[in-house]
Design goal:
The protein is an alpha/beta fold and about 150 residues long. The chain is built from three helices and seven strands, in the order E-E-H-E-E-E-H-E-H-E. One of its GO terms (biological process) is protein transport.
Amino acid sequence: MLFNSVRKKSFFHGVSTTSDQTAPEINLIPFIDVLLVILIFLMISTTFTRYQELSITLPSAEGAAAKGKPRDIAVAISSDGRVAIDGKRIALDQLTNVLTASAKNTGGDNGPNVIIAADGKAPHQSVMLVMEAARNANLPNVVFATQSKSK
């Protein structure tokens, strides 16, 4: 029972007697357990909703101009995920082969820079595919093109 005090009324005497007079007490341990479960549920659910509502605008940046004219391979990624290398549209499954061929045409000791110019609304997966293809073609110098901030 919730309360432990018990009152007995004597049937024959009409006098009430009490046995084991103890103060009523509520067991708080199950109550605390339920509160902790609710707290954990709220912490997890608010973390996920915060990241779902995150709005990202891709960066614009300013930097110093390069000192020399580097050899580069220009890779453009459109907003719908299409890829062009040096102005020629390329199928996604041919990226590594075309980048390897372009690297051989430019020659040099360090290898060319791969300049990725991705649209601000381009799918992240397309950018990652281009970066992976550059790595597979042994082109370690990958650079992202950005816009200058207008003053």
